[in-house]
Structure formats: structure tokens, C-alpha cells
Design a protein that fits this description.
heterodimer, A: 780 residues, 5-stranded mixed beta sheet, 1 helix, 69 strands, 2% helix, 51% strand, B: 823 residues, alpha+beta, 4-stranded mixed beta sheet, 35% helix, 15% strand
Chain lengths: 780, 823
């Protein structure tokens, strides 16, 4: 750490020396990464440029308040956080706003126990670090490290150990824990768990009064300086699953907490009216509160709890749709059945929810007619262990669903919910990543603008949509376009007035049908990739239903598009001109690129306005399938102003049109040295003014011609081909024409192909027989 | 008494009827004219085949008579005995021919010894047509026509292809008769068929002239064509068994001859003399060469396995060759257990005396290295050497078996066989590590081997939560998995039978694909953690035969077709493999254990069990397997038996009788210490441990989980790369680079400097000669000899703290062969 901070400090000094505020602050990690609720915690925020004018922390979840934030050095800031006593334990996403921008998202972890730190050496079983039962230890597992902690417990007392390692989101750290007695016999051990994925928990009853040693290590004795952990050791309840795992919005549900060594406990929870993305219930009793919660589903369907035995068609648990059939596969090999009536033509979505509520069950769902005939089955769905069937009812009647475990396993925590609901009209909205794996934050410079891309995928409906941000910081406005029914992406331009206060807030993006004919379920979700595995597989991410928008200090440049006056045709090309206005004192390179390319268009990604210049052109090309319509385009400009800053142009219209002419190419043949006229037939589609230049391209070496001209009345263009004696022999199949029509003094460049020219070698002169040598036949 | 046991052990079928035979004379003209010279010490006489059936008018059966002398030597006395047969059959030379339907007895008499064989004659009126399946196809094998270098090549030869060793009779029939109309088979003029003209050399043939035009084989081919070139591929009875007589032979003296007789049994109950159709081979031509007609000639002293191959069957006969008139006095030694008894029997048969028992020092070092992979410490040495208990060796073995290093050594062995290693994009480090830990735990906690194999082969679940399923992740292809299972657990290499019937074993392509069918229903899916794969029984998927695409039903190797409708096929197979009745599993595992301690197996290589690679001591081989079953697959108990036996505790010094023998465990085998153990020993004696990534602090090389991870030292010394299941992977052959690495490389030199053993001992006030002794004891498990002490003392002279000199001594000891080898 000390080495790192020295480097950071040195870097910070250099940055400070250049005297302009730094942009694009980063939040790499927090130290400590969590705190006990009901306390105030001083946290060091570490990351590039974060110490330069930190202003605010945006909290994604309620319960934490920022008391103060101040610079330590350029790359570190100190924040004091007050965690409310009723704060939900577990993961809390945060971003930091500085004067110039917003950091990426990182997570802060709220615990329920007093905090302490690991103290090395604690790697010897015989000399473990002593801690009170009821402590959260913040530690790190360096390479091949093993940490031992000793606690004292009384016989019959519950010892619960939960590790937050991978879930801290720092590195691909896979912890394993064990509770050992003094003789080193294992009381409990856990490596992975369905509830916590790679993280682990143990909850056992102390078999006797005495010392217990908690072993903490990386599962395969790896680790590094980023393998930090929060180890919660206490008497708190640590159930594995809450049954029935959810309910209706606003409903008070009685939960059975499964997997507690003290036996099944009951708890009541009032579900929120508006479900958050990830609603969790943290178990709590007189012995304490769990460090993290159990996920619950909130959907508009009544819970139907299974009644055992229900393994047969005639004792299947009955319910009326829509319903959430809830059960537990209690024994290995067990089968649960549910029965309901449905009418021909109805469409039902059958979601078997087990792993989503972190049950160990890997379910197989089967739907049958009451007569027994199987209609469909599902094991996994969309790469997840839970099952899904879209069921279109074939005839009026009774139907039965089977639920079994894929490996015929089972146990008291193998809970599930079979949610059978009508498909809902919904839009899945994503704020597109600026670059892969980098969640986009929106930073609008005062007196300037920025632009982002939004994807809105329609589920179960079609039609034009209005899409836009919800609440925005004061002084920020947005402009966007209507999202036509045939497309799912749109640009959003956000402007801030010069007077807009420097501020930030979380907001969402919504979509509605332009005719408002039907309500849509809006599902906005932003993924922050925290840990990726081999081949960039998602291992741990944070998901939020809000995005972050902030107003930052003004930029020393603006950018604008010189709006094209002529169309860009399919299979055509065009140079898009952009002009920058640089303020006094700034002459850095400004990288410019299209915010997005409409379908069938490709734009050059590596263009910049170089120092000393104020203009650049972005070459655009289209393929034959480019969508012909007027597109609202935006150009994004990026520059390094002590960190990357971005702004956007205003909207400009780019018309993509069908080609003005089409051409029919003949296939012709000639011999080396024999010229010919190559005539290409023309069909006019869009009249144009004046003469258009036509060049024939793709001729083989040794064949030349001259450009021709056509007008809107031409039906043919003829190229005189000069064929040299050494012209390349063969089939030359990629002849095409470049037609340049002038429109509003701008070229409209078409590429139209393709034709074939065959060049033959001349026949050899006929041989005459010479004395002694036969004209044909084998020589001997 | 000894001789009696010896004869019994050969188990010859002996007919010694002194009754009426004695005065019976043979029919005139059918017995050898010369009165035979009778060898005096003959103890018994036998006639082969011991039962004869002649099934049609053209049938015949060759016969031999074998006399066994009191010392166990066998003699081919077919020409010397007086043969008598009457009634339904007659003899023509050594060939028995049918006369009329009925039963009779073939009798042979040799001096006072008589033997007989019952003869049954049926269907004399029948003259069966030439069979494509059983007359023509065997000619292709016998003539080498369908060998890999000739028409059996996958592309054929000179435009004509036969299936390799005849694995596809239907295809061969098609190519002969239909692929090129008229040319190969000319029904109008059979002698013009290429089939006939090529083999008889009438037209140019790359393969030369295979048979004379008047030979029986050429005639068979011509007759088959003349008879319409009929196919009986679908209808012909199958060969159920092939017998080779005599079953065991002991020849004394170079040049002695023995004729072998091969008899085929068919599914319709018929038998047939296949002397001119079977392919005769010997696995040791220098001891017993065998000609095309089954006549073996004794060569140098040794042991050979004479084999006959016919159809898909290969059978063999153990043949010992002893020098003429060797003087042999067996040493008297009370056997410790069944091992010594069985090894002793074989040694006495071979007229070999074992070496003496090794010294206590040698034993301690040997057993420590073999059982726990560590050198004895100074304390262990002192304790053991000062122990006067006569049972101290057995106690030491018991003590070592309880150490966890024992489990680690066997976990390492199993990890090599099971190819435990991470595989990019398939097996991540974590599941591999858990798999390795699983194996170690199974052995450490004493899970019986059969249970461990059932746990492994029948495993389902996630590769984290059920690490045993990684067996199916490290190798994903169905066929390879089946091959690996056969090789690791049954010691059988099935690979050949994927494309053609096994040329030296009984396995056919049908066997191969029926066996792979046990693994054709393995389902795989990725778990939530992308590094974890879930293996499950997907209840669908079949193994299809390469030749005709048939879906093959699961069938145990050489055994029944089980009902697989209710359970996971893999679990059913695992039950079969580990059943006490299984003829392969227990003996194979026991042989691997044996090979670890003795340097080589009773069958060697241990994972190449086949008819043509028989056990050097079949009784010992069988007994070891039987004992393992008796011990309920408790590895430790078997190891205890081996380590307590004299066979294990022998000196490596050869004596006159055993100096050339390397297969019969007459002396201890000097073995290079395996790479991992050697590195651990080097670290331990120098006090300078290595650090291996991904393992807890203080881990040793034998604990390295990942086969993909190695160090320069381990690679140089032949660490198994775990890329195949072959037992040959760990290499212990010395190489130049090993020597150079130890001499010039950093390993030894740096470790001596790192460990600072010499310096520490000097500081502790030890005298140079004490330090030299300590170094010898640590590294070699013995004290320096007087000569050594004296020569070393000259090196350091009177210096009090001769650090450099003592380090040199240390270095020299570590570079000595004695350190690198376990003798």
C-alpha cells in the first residue's frame, strides 16, 4: 500500500502542477470497504484524480449519508459516512462526484457487527488472532495466505460465519472458510454457496463450550493484495433461503427462514409497493442480524404454497392462474406437482424461480396435460439454472406442472417459486456502454452538452416509443428523437446552461408508446462490471435501476457538425465535416467520432482535430442495406484536459437515400492488344441535375479507360477500353463504377457494381510441319 | 516333495492308464517303424488335443504327445510314442482322419506311460462347401494380405483394400466380388480370378507369391470361387474359442523342438484343426522361435509366450527354455508369505536362486522412499538401527503406512493416471485443485479402492461440489474416456479396436463401441460459476459403430450386456469393474502396487494387459489380485504384504543364477527416484524448501496438484506431464541433462548454500567428521565407510571450520548415484 500511495502522490503532484482541474475521476477501491450500521465511518476513497475537488457521493441505496468529503491527495479522498441504524445490510453502490465529473461505481458494504482489522501474523493454526464472537474483520489474503481467528462460544450457541470476498467486487477472489475446533477437527466448512456464489457461509451450533478457530483462505491457496475480505463472525442468524421467496407488491408476507441450525424461524416482511431491482430481507433475531439479506421476488401473483404429498396428478397442489406455486424439494429424488385449469389460446409465462432466490435447487420444469402427456420441459434458461416455458394452452382443460431437481438432489433449503403469469408488455432499457465493460456516467459541462445512446428493447409489443431521462439536475435539458417501431436505439442529447449549478443525481430512463395506448413496464438496468473471468465472462456485477448524471465545469472547446446538404446513398460514401471551437489556451487534439452509426453505415473511428487545426472530416460509407431515411446524428468529441473530457455536437440530419441510378453490366471478352467499348446500361431512379461523372474501376493491369459523364436522361455509358498487348489474362470480375452526382454543390458518391471482363491470350499461330519433326504426336 | 508340487503347478492333463493299453499294438503301417528310445525319468505322458471331434468327411485333427520328466522338462514325443486308434478314425502321420461316424479312443504309449484322448466322429458323409468367413478370410490373415502394410492399409494397396486383420468381413466380401466386376473373382474361369493369380504369383504381385498353386490355401481360394464365391458373412457360425496345445512347455537345451496344435471351437459346436490357418507367433524369438506351422525351436535360456491367432482370438502357451544340463541347487529359505512362496516356485522352475536379504540400512532407506517418498531422518535411522526387535522391519512398515505422506504418494500416482491438471478453457485451476484434494482425501481416509473407483466413475454433479466429476472434464470425448477407463482400471489398451479388431488381443470393434456406449450419455452444462461444469446422466445418446453406424448396446468387456434402462450407465459399469468377479480390476491395481515397490510389474507394462503380454508369474499375479479383494481393497494391507516379503527385502547384488534375469524378482531392482520425490529429498536433506505456486506454505513437490505446473528440475527428471493415462508417463531413465543439471545447474549448489546446513552444524560445535557422517546419513541412509571417511578427512585436513570443503563433500554426495537411486 505504501508504495502505491507514494506513486499516487507523485502522480498527483504532477497533475496538480499542470494547474487545470482533472477530469474523469476514478474510484478504484475503498478503505475500509464497509462499516457497521449505526456508526460513522471514515473511508479513504482511492482512485485516479478522485482527490481533486471531491464534492459529493451519489448513493444508490438509502441509509447512508455523507458527512464530509475532503482531499487527502490528488488520488485519495477521505469521506465520513454516517450509516443509519436501520440501514439495509449488504451492498450499497456509490459514485463520487468531483468538480469535473463522476467516478465509476464501486460498492460499500454495510455490516451489523463491530468492525476490526486483521493483524498479521495470524497464519498459524496454533497462534490465531483472537476476536470477540460478534465481529466483522477486514482483512486481506495475499498469495498462499491463510488467516486464523479464534473465538469463544458456549455449547448450544449459534456460530455464524459469513465471508464477503468476491462480493466486494475488487478481484476474482474465491474465499473458503472453515470452523475448526481446538483439535483441528472441522465443525463446518464452506467454499461456495448458492446464496453467495463464490463467497461462503457456515452456521452451526457449537457442540461444546470452548474455543473455535475460523480458517479463512483462498480456495486453492491463491490470493493477492486486492483479495480483501470482510469476515463476519457472530451469533447472528444466517439462513440460506427465505420461503416462499416473495409476494405481491405491498403485501406483508410471512417467511420461513430455511437453513438456520437453530431450526426453521418465521419472520414477517412488508414488501414495497414499487419493487427495487434487488429486494432483500436480512434475517434478524435476539442474537443479531445477518450481514447480508436474502433476495425476495415481488410480482403480482398470489402465492400458492404446496401441500405435501403432491407427487401425483391427483394429489397435485391446485391453484388458479396467475399464481406463484411455492414449494421445497425436501428430499433427494422428490417431485412436486401443481395443477391448474387453463383455457385454449391463453398464453402463460412459466418461470421457475429457484436460483434467483438463491436456492440450491437446479430445477427441471415440465408441463403436462392432466392425462399425463408431456407438452414441454425446461432445464436451464438463458444460461441460468432456472427454468422457463412460454405455454400456449392447446385446449381447455387441466394441466399439471412437475418440479424436480436436475441431479435428483434435494434438501430442506431447496425452495422454489413457480410463477405463472401473463406476459407483460415491457421495455428493457439500457444506457449503452461507452466502451465495452464500462458503465456510462453522464457528465454535462456547464454551457455545453453531451450525448449518450440508449437501447430500448420491446417485449411483447411493437410501436413507436418516446424515450428519455427522468429527473435531471437543475439547468440540464434533454433532446432526443422518436424511436420508430422498427428500431431499438436512440441518441439523447443533454445540455446544461452556463449557470447550471455543479451537481449530480441519480435518475432513470423511461419509455412509453407515443400514442400512450398501453402502459408499459419500464425496466431500466445499468450493469457495472466489477469482476470478469476468462474470456471476459461476467463473474460479479452491480446492477442498478438508476443512472448517474452530473453537471461539471465548462470545457475549453465545443464541436459542431457541418450539416450535409446532400444525401448519402446506399453503397455510397461521404465525408462528414466537423468544426471545433477551441477556447483561448487550449489547443489539444480533439478526437471526433459518430455517437452511433445508423444500420448499414460505417464511420471512421480514428479521426481527430489535430493541434493547430479546427476542422476534420469523418469518412462515412454505407452498404447496400443501409436504412434509407433521415437520421439524427451526433458527433462526440473527446480531449485530454488533465483527464478525458467529452462533449457532443448538436443534432444534424443525415439523409440516407437509395441510389439515384442503377447499372447493368455486360460480360465481355477480348484478346490482349485488342481494345473494345464497354457499354453499361443505366436505369435512372432519382433525377439529378447536371452531369454526373462516372469512372470505371477494377480494370486489370494493362487495361485502361477514361471517365465518362452521364445526365439524368442517359440510358447507357460507354467506356472505350485500351487493352495492352501484355494486359493481364483472365476473368476480371470486379469491375464497378463510381458515379459522382453533384447536389447542392456536394458530391453524392455511388459505388455501383459489378461487371466482368475476360482477357484472353491470342491463339498461337498455326504450326507448319518441318522436316524430320512431326507436327503432332509424341517425340521419341 | 518340491518336484511334486512343481509338476502339479503345471497342471498338465495326464492320462496314466496302465490297463489294457500296455499290450495293444498299433495297426500295421500307421506307426513309426523305428522303436523309440525312451527317456528314463519321464513322469507322465499326455496327448493333445485331450478331446477330439471330427465333424465331417473332410475334417482332420493333428495330434501330439508330450512327456513330462521328473524335473518338469517337457518333451515332444509325438514321433516316439506308439499311436493306436481303431474303428471310426485312422491316423495318417500325426493327422487323425475320419473313417465312419462313431466314437473311439486315440491311445499313445511311451515306455511304461500311456495316455489317451477320446475321439468323436460325426457326419462323415458330409463334404461342406468352402466358407468365406472361416476358410477364405483366415487365409488373408495367415498370408499377411490384410496386414497394415499391404491391402489392410486404410487406403488399400495397388487399388485393392481389405479390412485390417479382417474386421469387416462384409466389406471384404463386397470389395472382392462387387467392387470390380469379374476381375478379382471370375466365376467362369476360377483360375483366372485375380484373387488366385495374384497370390500364386501367376501375375505380377507387389506382395510376391504368397502360396504355391498346389498349396492347400491356393486350392481353398480357387474352390471358393468355383463354388460361386458365396458369402456366409451373415450366417456363418462364430468362433467361440481357440485352444493352443500344449498349454505349458519347458524345453531343455538349444535346438529342442516342440510342435503346437491349435483348435478352433465354433458356435455350432464344431471344432477344427487350424494349424494351417492360424497365425503362430512368439513374443521372444530368441528363446523360442515358432514357424508358420506351429513348430517351436528352443533358443537361449529364457521365457517365451507362443501364440496362435485366429479370427479375433489370440491364445498363448507359456514356454520356458532352460540350458542343457544346468547344475542347480535351490537355496533353502522359509517364505514370509504367499508372495515368497509363489516367487520361489517360479524361481526354482527357472533354476534361479534369489539374492540374499538386504541390510537394515538399505531396507530403511528403500522402504522410506517407497512408502512415504522421504528419506529417513537421523532420528529415524538411529531408532531403527538400535532397535533389536526382530520384528522391527514389519513395525517400520506399519509405522510408515500410517503417515500422511503415504496417501500423498498414492494420490500422486492416481493423479498421474487420472491426468489431474488444468486445461485451458476446459478445466480451471480451482476444480482441478479440488479434484486433486478429493483424490488425496480418498486415499488418506482409507476409502477402499473399489469404492473410490465407483465414486469416480459414477460421479455426477458440479466440478466444484463433486470434484470427482472432473474425471469426465479432463477428457471429454466419449471414446477417449472409454479407452482411459479400460487402461487405468482394467489395464487394457483398447485404442486399436477403435478402427480395427485388436491385432494382438481379443478385442473387436464391437467390443470397443459397446464399451464406449457406457459413456455416451454423459451430459455437461456450465454451472453459475463459469469455471464449474455439471456432469449428469442425460439418459440419451448412443455409441455408433464406425463401420456400419449401428447403435451399440453397452456391453462389459468380454462379458454380458447389462440392463441399463434404470440407472446411470457409468454407475453400472463401475459396479462391474469393481465387482470381485471382475477378472481385470483387482489384479491390475494389485500389479500397479507391486510395480511401485518392485520396480516392474508381474505384467509389464502394467497397463498393457493382453493375451500376448502375459504375466511373468501368473499365479503370483492372480494371488495379488485375490488378496486385494480379500483385504476389501485396502491398499495398506497389500503394501504391508509386499514390504514384509523377502522378495521386496532382497539385496540388489546379483548372484550367478539371477544375474541375467530381470523378470522374476530374484533380487532388488535399482530404481532412479522419481522426479517429485527426488526434489523433496533434495529439499529435505539440504533444508532448503521450494515454493510452489497455488499450494499452501511448506508444500512438497509430491503435493503439486496441477499436472500442467512443473519446474525445470521436475521436467528434467521426468515428471509425468499427465497428458495421457499411460503408466509410462513418469520417466525415471537417467539422462545427460539430469546429470548436468545436478553437476552444473543451480539445484544442488544453491540448495546447499540456502540451507546452510554445514555452517549451522559447525556453529553448533560439530566436528567435521561428525558433519560428514550426518551428511551421509541424511542423504544415503548409511554411515561413510572407513575408506570414505579417510579420503574425506584428507580433504579438510586439520581445519576446524572447513566450510567449503564440507560443502564440497555434501555436493559430491548429492551428485552420487547412490543418492539418486533407490537400491
Amino acid at each position: 500500500m505504501s508504495k502505491f500511495s507514494t506513486i499516487c502522490t507523485a502522480l498527483g503532484c504532477l497533475l496538480a502542477a499542470s494547474a487545470i482541474e482533472a477530469a474523469s475521476p476514478r474510484l478504484d477501491h475503498l478503505q475500509p470497504q464497509g462499516g457497521q450500521r449505526g456508526t460513522e465511518v471514515a473511508v479513504t476513497l482511492i482512485g485516479g484524480r478522485i482527490g481533486q475537488d471531491p464534492q459529493q457521493i451519489l448513493f444508490y441505496d438509502p441509509g447512508i449519508e455523507l458527512k464530509s468529503i475532503e482531499r487527502i491527495d490528488d488520488n485519495q479522498a477521505k469521506a465520513t459516512l454516517a450509516i443509519a441504524p436501520d440501514c439495509q445490510p449488504g451492498i450499497h453502490g456509490i459514485r463520487v462526484r468531483t468538480l469535473t465529473g463522476l467516478t465509476n461505481l464501486r460498492t460499500f458494504h454495510v455490516g451489523t457487527l463491530p468492525e476490526s482489522n486483521e493483524t498479521e501474523p495470524n497464519g498459524d493454526f496454533a497462534a490465531p488472532q483472537a476476536i470477540p464472537l460478534g465481529t466483522t474483520v477486514n482483512g486481506v489474503i495475499t498469495n498462499e495466505d491463510v488467516d486464523y481467528f479464534v473465538i469463544e462460544a458456549k455449547e448450544g450457541e449459534r456460530i455464524s460465519v459469513e465471508i464477503e470476498g468476491l462480493r466486494l467486487g475488487r478481484t476474482f477472489f474465491d474465499p473458503a472458510i472453515a470452523i475448526l475446533d481446538e483439535e483441528r477437527f472441522e465443525v463446518a466448512a464452506s467454499d461456495d454457496s448458492p446464496l453467495m456464489q463464490q463467497d461462503a457461509f457456515c452456521s452451526v451450533i457449537a457442540p461444546k463450550t470452548g474455543k473455535y478457530i475460523v480458517e479463512m483462505r483462498e480456495t486453492s491457496y491463491r490470493g493477492d493484495d486486492a483479495s480483501t475480505y470482510r469476515l463476519h463472525i457472530g451469533k447472528f442468524p444466517r439462513p440460506g433461503v427465505a420461503f416462499p421467496g416473495g409476494g405481491k407488491p405491498g403485501e406483508e408476507v410471512e417467511l420461513k427462514l430455511l437453513g438456520d441450525p437453530l431450526g426453521e424461524k418465521l419472520a414477517k416482511v412488508k414488501l414495497p409497493e414499487t419493487p427495487p431491482l434487488d429486494f432483500r430481507f436480512a434475517a434478524e433475531d435476539e442474537a443479531g442480524a445477518a450481514a447480508t439479506g436474502l433476495p425476495l421476488r415481488i410480482i403480482d401473483a398470489t402465492n400458492v404454497i404446496e401441500v405435501e404429498p403432491n407427487q401425483k396428478n391427483d394429489n397435485a397442489t391446485r391453484g388458479e392462474l396467475p399464481a406463484a406455486f411455492c414449494g421445497v424439494i425436501e428430499k433427494p429424488g422428490a417431485l412436486d406437482r401443481f395443477r391448474f385449469a387453463a383455457k385454449k389460446g391463453e398464453v402463460w409465462d412459466m418461470n421457475l424461480i429457484a436460483r434467483e432466490i438463491r436456492s440450491p435447487l437446479d430445477a427441471i420444469l415440465r408441463i403436462r396435460k392432466a392425462s399425463g402427456e408431456q407438452l414441454a420441459a425446461s432445464d436451464d434458461n438463458a444460461g441460468r439454472p432456472d427454468s422457463y416455458i412460454r405455454f400456449t394452452v392447446p385446449e381447455d382443460g387441466e394441466y399439471v406442472c412437475d418440479v424436480v431437481d436436475h441431479l435428483k438432489q434435494g434438501g430442506p433449503t431447496y425452495a422454489y417459486r413457480l410463477e405463472i403469469t401473463k406476459p407483460r408488455l415491457a421495455v428493457d432499457i439500457v444506457l449503452e456502454e461507452r466502451s465495452q465493460f464500462e458503465a456510462t456516467e453522464v457528465v454535462v459541462p456547464q454551457g455545453g452538452q453531451t450525448a449518450v445512446m440508449v437501447t430500448a428493447n420491446r417485449a411483447e409489443f411493437g410501436g413507436d416509443l418516446n424515450v428519455g431521462f427522468g429527473a435531471l439536475p437543475e439547468g440540464v435539458t434533454q433532446e432526443t428523437v422518436m424511436l420508430t417501431a422498427d428500431y431499438n436505439r436512440l441518441p439523447v442529447l443533454l445540455r446544461a446552461t452556463p449557470e447550471a449549478p455543479l451537481a449530480g443525481q441519480l435518475t432513470t430512463i423511461t419509455a412509453e408508446l407515443t400514442d400512450k395506448s398501453q402502459p408499459l413496464l419500464n425496466r431500466f438496468r445499468q450493469q457495472t462490471w466489477l469482476i470478469r473471468g476468462a474470456n471476459n465472462v461476467n463473474v460479479w456485477s452491480h446492477y442498478a435501476n438508476q443512472g448517474a448524471v452530473a453537471v461539471a465545469q465548462p470545457l475549453p472547446f465545443t464541436i459542431k457538425i457541418v450539416e450535409p446538404k446532400a444525401a448519402l446513398v446506399q453503397s455510397g460514401s461521404k465525408d462528414l465535416r466537423v468544426v471545433a471551437e477551441k477556447k483561448e489556451g487550449f489547443d489539444g487534439r480533439i478526437a471526433v467520432r459518430m455517437l452511433y452509426d445508423p444500420p448499414g453505415l460505417s464511420s471512421h473511428q480514428g479521426i481527430g482535430i489535430e493541434p493547430g487545426q479546427t476542422e476534420a472530416v469523418i469518412p462515412l460509407t454505407t452498404n447496400p442495406q443501409a436504412w434509407a431515411r433521415d437520421w439524427k446524428i451526433i458527433v462526440i468529441a473527446e480531449a485530454d484536459v488533465n483527464g478525458t473530457v467529452r462533449t457532443a455536437s448538436e443534432f444534424a440530419t443525415l439523409k440516407i437515400a437509395p441510389q439515384y441510378v442503377t447499372m447493368a453490366y455486360p460480360t465481355v471478352a477480348t484478346e490482349q492488344g485488342k481494345g473494345l467499348d464497354y457499354a453499361v446500361a443505366i436505369t435512372q431512379a432519382t433525377p439529378f441535375n447536371g452531369a454526373a461523372k462516372v469512372e470505371l474501376v477494377g480494370l486489370p493491369p494493362g487495361v485502361t479507360t477514361t471517365p465518362q459523364e452521364i445526365t439524368k436522361d442517359s440510358t447507357e455509358v460507354k467506356f472505350p477500353l485500351q487493352v495492352a498487348a501484355d494486359a493481364r489474362v483472365g476473368h476480371h470480375k470486379s469491375l464497378y463504377c463510381v458515379v459522382t452526382v453533384m447536389e447542392n454543390e456536394e458530391p453524392v458518391v455511388h459505388t455501383i457494381g459489378t461487371g466482368e471482363l475476360r482477357v484472353d491470350a491470342p491463339l498461337p499461330p498455326p504450326q507448319t510441319a518441318q522436316e524430320g519433326i512431326p507436327a503432332t504426336g509424341e517425340s521419341s | 516333495m518340491k518336484i511334486f508340487r512343481f509338476v502339479l503347478s503345471f497342471g498338465l492333463l495326464v492320462f496314466t492308464s496302465h490297463a489294457a493299453l500296455a499290450k495293444t499294438s498299433s495297426a500295421p503301417g500307421e506307426t513309426p517303424a523305428v522303436k523309440p528310445e525312451v527317456v528314463a525319468d519321464v513322469a507322465s505322458l499326455a496327448v493333445y488335443p485331450s478331446e477330439i471331434t471330427l465333424d465331417d468327411g473332410d475334417d482332420y485333427q493333428g495330434v501330439i504327445a508330450v512327456a513330462t520328466r521328473a524335473n518338469g522338462v517337457t518333451l515332444d514325443v509325438s514321433d516316439q510314442v506308439e499311436w493306436v486308434v481303431e474303428g471310426s478314425a485312422r491316423l495318417e502321420g500325426h493327422r487323425l482322419l475320419p473313417v465312419a461316424d462313431g466314437a473311439t479312443v486315440l491311445r499313445a504309449s511311451y515306455g511304461t506311460h500311456q495316455a489317451e484322448a477320446p475321439v468323436k466322429v460325426v457326419g462323415v458323409a458330409n463334404r461342406p462347401a468352402v466358407s468365406f468367413r472361416h476358410d477364405v478370410m483366415p487365409i488373408f490373415l495367415r498370408g499377411g494380405c490384410n496386414a497394415g502394410g499391404c491391402h489392410g492399409s486404410s487406403r488399400g494397396k495397388d487399388g485393392f483394400r481389405l479390412s485390417l486383420f479382417g474386421f469387416d468381413p462384409a466389406g471384404d466380401y463386397f470389395r472382392l466380388t462387387r467392387e470390380q466386376a469379374v476381375r478379382r473373382v471370375n466365376l467362369s474361369i476360377p483360375e483366372e480370378s485375380l484373387l488366385y493369380t495374384k497370390v500364386t504369383g501367376k501375375v505380377p504381385h507387389t506382395g510376391g507369391k504368397n502360396f504355391e498353386p498346389d498349396s492347400v490355401h491356393a486350392k481353398t481360394l480357387r474352390d471358393w470361387v468355383a463354388g460361386g464365391a458365396q458369402s456366409d458373412v451373415a450366417t456363418a457360425p462364430t468362433v467361440t474359442k481357440v485352444e493352443l496345445f500344449p498349454p505349458r512347455v519347458v524345453m531343455e537345451g538349444e535346438g529342442v523342438k516342440q510342435r503346437y496344435i491349435a483348435v478352433a471351437h465354433y458356435s455350432d459346436g464344431r471344432t477344427r484343426d487350424i494349424g494351417d490357418l492360424a497365425l503362430f507367433m512368439s513374443n521372444n524369438e530368441s528363446s523360442a522361435a515358432v514357424d508358420a506351422d506351429g513348430l517351436a525351436t528352443a533358443g537361449a535360456r529364457g521365457e517365451a509366450f507362443v501364440m496362435a491367432r485366429f479370427d479375433t482370438h489370440t491364445v498363448g502357451s507359456q514356454t520356458l527354455v532352460l540350458p542343457q544340463g544346468v547344475e542347480f541347487t535351490p537355496t533353502e529359505e522359509a517364505p514370509v508369505n504367499y508372495i515368497d512362496e509363489l516367487v520361489g516356485v517360479k524361481l526354482r522352475t527357472m533354476r534361479i536362486n534369489p539374492s540374499g536379504i538386504c541390510s537394515d540400512e538399505e531396507f530403511l532407506r528403500r522402504v522410506s522412499l517407497d512408502v512415504v517418498g522421504r528419506l529417513p531422518t537421523r532420528d529415524e535411522y538411529d531408532l531403527f538401527m538400535n532397535d533389536s526387535n526382530p520384528q522391527k522391519r514389519a513395525q517400520k512398515v506399519d509405522e510408515l503406512l500410517e503417515r500422511k505422506e503415504f496417501a500423498e504418494i498414492w494420490a500422486l500416482k492416481w493423479s498421474e493416471l487420472l491426468m489431474v491438471k488444468s486445461v485451458p478453457n476446459r478445466v480451471e485451476y480451482k476444480p482441478m485443485f479440488l479434484y486433486s484434494q478429493w483424490i488425496t482425501r480418498q486415499i488418506a481416509s482409507g476409502v477402499p479402492l473399489d469404492e473410490m473407483v465407483r465414486n469416480l466413475l459414477g460421479a455426477s454433479g458440479g466440478s466444484f461440489s463433486s470434484p470427482a466429476v472432473n474425471f469426465y472434464q479432463i477428457e471429454e470425448t466419449t471414446q477417449k474416456t472409454a479407452e482411459n477407463v479400460a487402461q487405468v482400471f482394467l489395464g487394457t489398451r483398447l485404442q486399436c479396436a477403435q478402427c480395427h479388431n485388436h491385432p494382438f488381443d481379443r478385442w473387436t470393434m464391437d467390443d470397443y463401441y459397446s464399451f464406449t456406449a457406457f459413456f455416451s450419455q454423459i451430459g455437461r452444462k456450465t454451472a453459475e460459476d463459469y469455471r464449474e461444469t455439471i456432469i449428469f446422466d442425460q439418459r440419451s445418446g448412443e455409441a455408433t459403430h464406425l463401420v456400419d453406424g449401428r447403435a451399440m448396446k453397452p456391453k462389459f468387456l468380454g462379458d454380458a450386456e447389462p440392463d441399463v434402462s434404470k440407472r446411470d450407465r457409468r454407475a453400472i459399469l463401475a459396479d462391474w469393474i469393481t465387482a470381485p468377479e471382475n477378472p481385470y480390476f483387482a489384479v491390475n491395481v494389485a500389479n500397479r502396487v507391486w510395480a511401485h515397490f518392485m520396480g516392474f510389474g508381474v505384467i509389464e507394462p502394467v497397463d498393457d494387459v493382453r493375451v500376448s503380454n502375459p504375466a511373468s508369474n501368473p499365479d503370483l499375479h492372480a494371488k495379488l489380485g485375490a488378496k486385494l479383494i480379500e483385504y476389501k481393497y485396502d491398499l495398506r494391507q497389500l503394501v504391508r504384504d509386499i514390504c514384509n516379503s523377502h522378495a521386496y527385502q532382497r539385496s540388489s547384488e546379483p548372484n550367478e543364477t539371477n544375474s541375467t534375469d530381470s523378470r522374476n524378482f530374484a533380487r532388488s531392482q535399482v530404481r532412479r527416484i522419481s522426479a517429485e520425490v527426488l526434489l523433496d529429498c533434495l529439499c529435505a536433506v539440504t533444508g532448503a524448501p521450494e515454493k510452489y505456486p497455488g499450494l499452501p506454505m511448506g508444500a512438497r513437490a509430491v503435493q503439486i496438484a496441477d499436472g500442467g505446473l512443473s519446474t525445470y528440475f521436475l521436467t528434467t527428471f521426468g515428471r509425468a506431464p499427465r497428458s495421457t493415462v499411460c503408466a509410462c508417463e513418469p520417466k525415471t531413465e537417467p539422462t545427460l541433462s539430469q546429470a548436468l543439471h545436478l553437476l552444473n545447474g543451480s539445484a544442488v549448489h544453491d540448495k546447499i548454500n540456502e540451507g546452510k546446513l554445514v555452517e549451522t552444524m559447525l556453529e553448533a560445535g560439530k566436528k567435521p567428521n561428525e558433519i560428514v557422517e550426518e551428511v551421509y546419513l541424511r542423504c544415503l541412509g548409511r554411515k561413510p565407510t572407513e575408506v570414505e571417511s579417510q579420503r574425506i578427512a584428507e580433504l579438510y585436513g586439520t581445519a576446524e571450520k572447513p566450510v567449503a570443503e564440507l560443502q564440497d563433500v555434501f555436493w559430491a554426495v548429492l551428485n552420487s548415484r547412490e543418492f539418486l537411486f533407490n537400491k
